[in-house]
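Field guide to reading this record: the first block holds the primary sequence, the second block holds the structure written as discrete tokens, and the final block holds curator observations. Each block starts with its own label. This record concerns Actin cortical patch SUR7/pH-response regulator pali, catalogued under organism Aspergillus avenaceus.

BLOCK 1 — SEQUENCE
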Amino acid sequence: MFLTLLGGARNTVPLNEIYFLQASTGDIPGAPTTSRWTFWNLCPVGDDGKSDCGKSHPDFPFDPPSHRNFDTTTNIPEAFIGTKHYFLTSRFMFPFLIIALFFGVVSLFTGFLAMCTRVGSYLSSLMAWIALIFQIITTCLMTAVFVQGRNRFNANGQHATLGAKSFGFMWTSVACLFLSCILYCLGGSVGSKESGYSGREHRRRGFFSSQRSNSVRSNKEANP
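BLOCK 2 — STRUCTURE
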């Protein structure tokens, strides 16, 4: 989740290899030959095949014809023109991911309490469930908007591909958060300290009471 969030923020490995969508945009006036969209910028691709991003802008939108991207409608797929769908969908991704990260980090730290108390397990599970909900929303928005964007560029004769790393990171995070929720719940529901202790007490009482009864029985037999 952190790698996807920071992808494109700096031109260092691996951040300059993480992006949502790559498209051939050489026929668009003023656009680079190949463009990549990240959370922070619209980045050209260098000769080494890595992103060469400029100044970072948090929550950068995916909106090709707008002034934030190419600022032209020439050779832009018609599906992008006259709609706010791509702009709004891509903009909501950023805050939802920040929320998911916040609760995910809280769940990580409260998870240390889960080793000591069942309450810690349930609290960590609650934080993980909240993180999972927002992570699913973010990942679904990302998948919807950039898969549609890829299809629009390809239909316009401009080859486009999805960023395998960012999609892999995000969907893997969904799976890991789901497993965390389940395991935290299991950790809270098993191993009750109280029931184990009372069980030992019963066993102790049973042992000593049987010893006393055997002693009384032996005394009666010896002294009828």
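BLOCK 3 — OBSERVATIONS
Residues 2-214 form a domain with the Butyryl-CoA Dehydrogenase, subunit A; domain 3 fold (CATH 1.20.140.150).
The longest strand covers residues 21-24.
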